[in-house]
Amino acid sequence: MVQLHENLDALKDLDVNMYIVSGDTPEEQAELYNALEDAYGKSLPFISDPDLKMIELFNMKNNDAAYRGYGLMDTEGNVVFNTINDLWGQELDQTVEEIKEEYEKIHND
Description:
This protein has 109 residues and is of the alpha+beta class. It has a single domain (2-108), classed as Glutaredoxin (3-Layer(aba) Sandwich), CATH 3.40.30. It is built from four helices and six strands, in the order H-E-H-E-H-E-E-E-E-H. A two-stranded parallel ribbon has the order 1-2. Strands 3-4 form a two-stranded antiparallel ribbon. A two-stranded antiparallel sheet has the order 5-6. The protein starts with a helix and ends with a helix.
C-alpha cells in the first residue's frame, strides 16, 4: 500500500474512483487511513468488507481472508478485470501498465 500511495500520480490520468477494499473493521481501516494520510498527505478511501462479499465478487476470496490484488468495475457494478498478485506493490510499474491496458479496453469497447 505504501508503494501505491507513493505513486498515486501514475494513475491520475484515468477517470476512475479508487478504493482499498479489505475485510478489516472500519476502526482498523481508519487507523491505516490516518497513518497513510499523515505520511503522504492523502489516502485512498477504504471499504470495509468483513463478510468478504465484494472481495468474493472480485474472485479474490481466500477462505476467510482476501488475496492481495486489484481490479476494475464498470459503471454498472460489474467486475471487468481482476488480478491476484501479492507482489503488485513491488511490481508497481507492471501493475500500473496492466491497469491502464484494461482501462483502455473498457473505454474502447
